[in-house]
Amino acid sequence: MPSSAHDTLLADLGTEPDPGIEAGRSGTAPRLRGRRIPPTVVLSVLVIVVVLVSAVAPSLLAGQDPINGVPSDKLASMSGAHWLGTDYLGRDMYSRIVHGARTSVLSAILAVAVAVSLGTVTGLAAALGPRWLETPLMRLIDVLLAIPSLLLAMVFVAAFGFSSANAAVAVGLSMIASFARVARIEALRVRSAPYIEAAEVAGTSRVGVVVVHLLPNIATTLISLAVLEFGAAILALSTLSFLGFGAQPPDPEWGQLVAEGANFFYAAPWLVYAPAAVVVIVVLAVNRLSTYLDARAFDESL
Amino acid sequence: MKQLLRRAGVLALVLFLVYTLVFVVLVVLPGDPISNRLSDPDAGYTPQTVDLLKQYYGVDKPAALRYAEGLLRALHGDLGHSLADGQPVTGKLADAFAPTLELGGIALLVVLILTALVGLGALYGRVPALRVAFMSVPSLVYSLPVYLVAVVFIQAFSFQLGWVSLNGDGGFAATFLPACVLGITISPPLIQVFVRSLINADRLPHITVARARGIPELRILTRHLLPGAALPSLTVLGITIGYLMSGAVVTETVFTRYGLGALTQKAVQQHDQPVLLGIVVVNAAVFMLANLLVDVVYPRFDPRVQPRFSHAK
């Protein structure tokens, strides 16, 4: 095969970048021409905005009661009255999915917040703290990495008890290691930069140097990782809920909606497909945004 | 050899720390089934029975003592007894290990076959659009939750097409179907790295020269492209073992198969601390051994990578 064919392929990749490939590591990274934002990114942002609106004010988008249904309407298929049909208790599925965004999205935000804050502190402490602290912290990261992440989250949730908030904290704790590793490596990279040295010479306090000069310079990398992990958190949380360890009925949550719908798959397949499709679309959008942010950070660093 | 011993030492240390961390997380926090059952006023236990039972399950002792005893027993290969049914944890793990090994082994084969197919498709697809389609497969599959694929596969292949009976002894097909679900859902990271390395390798000048000299494409692929692309994939294969164990929890639960994953789900459900502790230690051991194996094998394929100790002071 002539290599020009591959150049075409790579050019195609540039305009239609693969959402899952994390950019900045190799030649297939999406190219950003100027500051133009690719249409897929615009679409992703739109999806994320709609989901955030559903999380904050679900009644704006869905008027029907997500908890109390009309039993005589149970397992109705899609119609004008029920856009996505009804479940086995006659509850409007569209409304349950929109209201489910509250639990699913807010939990994922909480999980990422836990992971970012604890992970960054751990990573910075390992990189910049007293020398005796580095080995124990690195060992802690090793331990967290040695346990498969879903299993680790399940251990925490077994200890905390089953609820959406506990599942969120559990998933957050299980993601600490990746943030700690990135924060440590980035801090080590930035630490030797001339402006850090200048700030130290100018007499800025140790904490001041970290907060004012170091954190803003590692923030871009941490933010694009946070966006990526947000998608992972949505998947992990919906998995925990599917298994019954997250949000408890009747409170709607996407993974739990799929678990409920699976019992009626033959009669009403849309009860599985609708909430699952929302999870897939949100994760795709989030990953696309993360790839874009990552590529932009990479471009800026050049 | 010296390096191998060092790595084995680190592995043992991390395993010990895993045991400690999980013990702290599970025991420091309340909610074990014994205390729940005993404190339930409807259970009708007399105070004497409560004391006896607490003694029997060992929950009357302080946590530090239980930790020390448990660790000592664990070093002798005894992980204690299940709080839910009183069976020895080691026996439960041993029973659950074989079905999961079978499931995981076939799933890994599925992963390798998929990786090869997508890789070749992305490299040799006739039209650019086809190649781009192959390249976007992994990111699409990555966003599919395991439970969705499992539910849809059961519905399609078992209930509607009737190819696979999942009741009782369904034979090979009853293992193959969940293995496909597991394999498909954990494959994206490996596929991504493999495809990217393959395409990067394809752009190197010596490949162009080889093609210009008229060397058969099959030989270019097997002698020049694959060895370079397989190496980065090897590292990801180690990580894939971790996804495999996480994915097994969902797959085995949805397919109601017996195995480590189903045991995990049950242990979490019942707050069965000793079983959960044992599962995590076994999982961490397998995961780290797989990665150790990758690190040991790697330098044999890539002479540029020197074992770490030769650089050490």
What is this structure, in a nutshell?
The complex is a heterodimer of chains A (302) and B (313). Chain A contains twelve helices and no strands. Chain A has helices at residues 3-15, 39-56, 58-61, 93-128, 131-146, 149-160, 164-174, 176-191, 194-201, 206-242, 254-262, 270-301.
Count of individual helical segments of chain A: 12
Order of helices and strands of chain A: HHHHHHHHHHHH
Tell me the span between the first and last alpha carbons of chain B. 17 Å
Q: Strand-and-helix sequence of chain B, N→C?
A: HHHHHHHHHHHHH
Question: Strand pairing plus helix content of chain B: what structural class?
Answer: mainly alpha
Give average pLDDT of chain B, whole number. 83
Oligomer: heterodimer
Q: Determine the strand fraction of chain B and express it as a percent band.
A: under 5%
The dominant shape of chain A is elongated
**How many beta-strand elements of chain B?**
0
Unreliable stretches of chain A, pLDDT < 50, 5 or more residues? Answer: 1-33
Biggest chain pair interface: A-B, 59 and 67 residues
Low-confidence runs of at least 5 consecutive residues of chain B: 309-313
Average pLDDT of chain A, to the nearest integer? Answer: 81
Radius of gyration of chain B: 24 Å
Q: Number of DSSP strands of chain A?
A: 0
Task: Label the structural class of chain A.
Answer: mainly alpha
Helix content of chain B: over 70%
Determine Rg of chain A (CA atoms, Å): 22 Å
Features:
heterodimer; A: 302 residues; mainly alpha; 12 helices; 70% helix; B: 313 residues; elongated; disordered C terminus
